[in-house]
Design a protein that fits this description.
With about 160 residues, the protein is α+β, with helices and mostly antiparallel strands. Helix content is about 55%, strand content about 15%. The strands form 2 sheets. Strands 1-2-3 form a 3-stranded antiparallel beta sheet. Strands 4-5 form a two-stranded antiparallel sheet. A hairpin with a 2-residue loop joins strand 1 and strand 2. Helix 4 packs parallel to helix 6. The termini are far apart.
């Protein structure tokens, strides 16, 4: 496989859907670089959302087609508004498909066990939900309520 020409790799990758193309990044460095090819992600974008949207959302500056695809996919999944979403065990504040801020992780390994060198199956099972993430979300919601009340008050005056 290592001796295959780059063009053949790209031809094979062009048959993959976005999920499998994203998963191929984890195989090795060469595949990561090849699977990040702008032409591959541009073609996937056009196939899914059409040429007009591809022209409108074309990447600017250092942004890649892969980045544009990820943002548009997230917009389709969660909408355009301001949302708190969970991807895996992590929570994010998202607006118009772009991650604005990471709010933290749902799971937190007991740091005492790791410091004491206990990395066996027993210590891994002792993962506890992180209360820090809940605090951040509650404070964020409180800040949003306060800001919206101030905005409503200004409209009434």
């Amino acid at each position: 496989m290592e001796r295959l020409p780059t063009d053949l790799y790209l031809k094979i990758f062009s048959w993959l859907d976005h999920q499998n193309l994203a998963a191929s990044h984890m195989v090795c460095r060469k595949w990561r670089d090849l699977a990040s090819d702008d032409k591959l992600w541009s073609t996937l974008f056009e196939e899914r959302w059409g040429v007009e949207r591809a022209t409108f959302y074309a990447p600017a500056g250092s942004e890649s087609w892969k980045d544009v695809y990820i943002v548009q996919d997230r917009c389709d999944r969660v909408g355009l508004g301001l949302k708190i979403i969970r991807e895996g065990d992590d929570y994010f504040l998202v607006h118009q498909g772009q991650i604005q801020r990471g709010l933290g992780s749902r799971r937190q390994v007991d740091s005492l066990n790791c410091k004491n060198g206990k990395k066996d199956a027993e210590s891994i099972d002792e993962e506890q939900p992180s209360s820090g993430i809940l605090d951040k979300i509650l404070f964020f919601i409180g800040d949003m309520e306060a800001a919206s009340m101030h905005a409503k008050r200004n409209r009434l005056l």
